[in-house]
What does this fold into?
Amino acid sequence: MLWRIWAPPQSTRAVMQSVWIALIPGTLTSVWVFGPGVLVHLVLAGLGACLAEVIGRRARGLAATQALQDGSTLLTAWLLALALPPAAPLWLPFVAGLIAIGLGKQLYGGLGQNPVNPAMLAYAILIVSAPVAMTTGWIVPFQGWSTPMPLTGIGVGAVDGLTGATILDLYRTEFRELTAPEIAQHPLFSVGGLGIAPGVEWVALSHLLGGGFLFARRVIRWQAPVGFLVGLLGLAAFFAIDPDNTVPVLTHALAGATLFSAFFIVTDPVSGATSPRGQWWFGLGAGVITYLIRTYGLYPDGVAFAVLFMNFMVPLIDQYTRPRIHGESRSIRGSVRGRS
Amino acid sequence: MAECRIIQSPRRLAGGLQRADGKALSLSQPLMQMNPPVLQLALPDTLEDTPLERWSIGDQIEAGQPLFTTQEGITQACPRTATVESVGTGKTLSGSPTPCRLLNLTVVDPDPPRQPSLTPLPANPDGRTLRQRAADAGIVGLGGGGFPAHLKWQHRLHTLIVNGAECEPFLTADEQTMRLRAPAIWDAVVALMSALSLQRCVLVLEDNKPEALAALQAAYPSVLDAQDVCITVIQSQYPSGAERQLIWLALGLEIATTTSPVEHGIVVHNPVTLAALADALHGYPLTDRIVTVTGPSIVTPGTFQTPLGTPIDLLLSQAGGLRPGHHNVFHGGPYTGWPISNTAAGVRATTACLYAAPVVSQTPSPCIRCGACAEVCPVHLQPQQLFAALTHDQLDEALHVGLSQCLECGACDVVCPSNLSLTKTFQDGIQDHQLQQAEKQRADRARTRFEARNQRLLKRSEADETRRAVRRERSGSALDRIRAARAEETH
Ligand code: SF4
Ligand code: SF4
It folds into this structure.
């Protein structure tokens, strides 16, 4: 049986399903670290996504029964559920699922037609239009099981166990004035984990495991994830010469959505660059922009905007990263329309 | 005992497929001789006289007697001694809408010709003699191309490559020939090298054919010792046997699709063609070819020495027939074959393989741009971009990103998780392009004609104009004279 799991998948459905399998470790650790809210979100995002898929297919005159056949809809919902704050109000994942599939996928004509990553589109729309709900629902790691799920997102500060912020947020706000040794004293760092990125490093590392599985199954190539990590962490390492004012490299790597995005977001084939070389540039660009947004931008984690930005660059990247055709002296750049 | 140099190619295809090759299926049986009671030969459309005028019903044609000569000079010999049963039109193998002319023969003597029908050539014939002989003996590319061999030899050549790669799964005609007819292959190599004054010969083999390699090694003639001859072993990978890919693997030379290998002095021949050429040197024209009948739907797959024109049906039943159920029979291998719609039609010179597989219905889903197709494309195209362009009717864009470089090898289809018919789309695109091109040429010609006509008319009208002007001048002066005369009268 083992070879069945390791052999490269032979259908679109099998491709999607191997991504599901790869998401399992990260999901389980998320539940362990952040509590059962993650699973509730998963179900709600799935419902929203399926609803949008069915409506979208109906509107396009297709059979609704085939809606879930290729498994990509549930995959988008799953990615969303893992990207949202674990204690976000319950309407959030549902709406996110609706937006992702409705606006991000069906509007463009369904699977394979969407120019941008649907999950990231929904994330970006919501963080702009519902910033409070999107940023304050973070739970102190390992207190998820004792923290009640808020329904509306109001009165977050009053609930025990909610930090209301991620470690990356803290670096932008509270930690601003502190020096590196002082930051290390913060109670969050004593919460379980490896003391690098309080608690969440376990989630990040299990996503690394899932990513390794996808790589071994040849569902993803190394170019996009490595490009992303090089872009983000390379810049972080360069600026780490000033430890008091910058986020340490390891925190960049293990906190926030870094590893999750490296393996599950920038590797989305539909909205990403298509050639291996293009995927490298796509990943690198997304990594650099993520660093810039994290450091200078308004939002705590910039992956969604970085990925969307790079999505729009894809036609350009694709046109300039074609491999050289056998027998040709140079690779073909640009397009016919571009030249005329 | 002469030894041939064996070289491991340092290069390997970027991309390509490495799949189970299925070759053992048809190689487990010894080569069998087909003795069909009837033959059906398709006549080329370009023959000037109608066959009916050539033969009448009941005529006996001896084996080896020329039947017809094509425009390219290829003479087809009658495979067996037979009587003419009928001459008429009928369906082609592929069932294309334009019917072809057929010659139906009833075999009188099932044995292959025992006497050479052409005079055997002396050793070391010159280039002209060899070309003439290849044409007279009907030697065309038996690997599947069907291109007349003697036309390739018109160019200035320096290198002969023997294409024994046979990279497509299930195909075994080349391998069986190399195993059984290695001496004949070397004979042809010797003749070609001296006749065309070639500098070197590279026999390329995939590493999954150790028996063929051993047979070739054992038959290696010592006359070749003084020459630059070697056997190059390459990794088994589809489509390493595609002409340009093979040349790169053997010589490290990339040849663009805009030029053909012979223009670079490289001629590629298939071992089956060379074995047939060796026979032709001894005076035997091409009457039979080796056909592999294989695939999951064939009961007892095998290789068959088959007279040209043997009905496909007969060949299939000789291989135990098809298993129960719905099957497709393909002309060619599993990747590049096309479905045969008329199995009553006869085997052609290009029929290297009949491949039968159960009918599978796969519903395509949209392209997810996974890039799997680009990974296996041997010419490094981006099939997903070609496909997107063609499905959006942007033929120009598809051509810009390399549509005309596509080998139509089918590797991309095999790996596409969305089950898209990429190769079919590309074939159609290429065909559309060729049609457009032809249309454009016609339009260009029409335009030149039109412009020339306009030019002519313009010239003529200009000439008329001057003539009229001259006349006017003359008549004008006449008028003046009359006027002057009248004026004088009135005064
Ligand atoms: S293999 Fe199929 S699905 Fe993947 S990019 Fe190529 S055409 Fe699209
Ligand atoms: S059929 Fe054409 S595009 Fe597809 S793999 Fe072969 S050469 Fe590449």
Remarks:
- Chain A is about 60% helix and 0% strand.
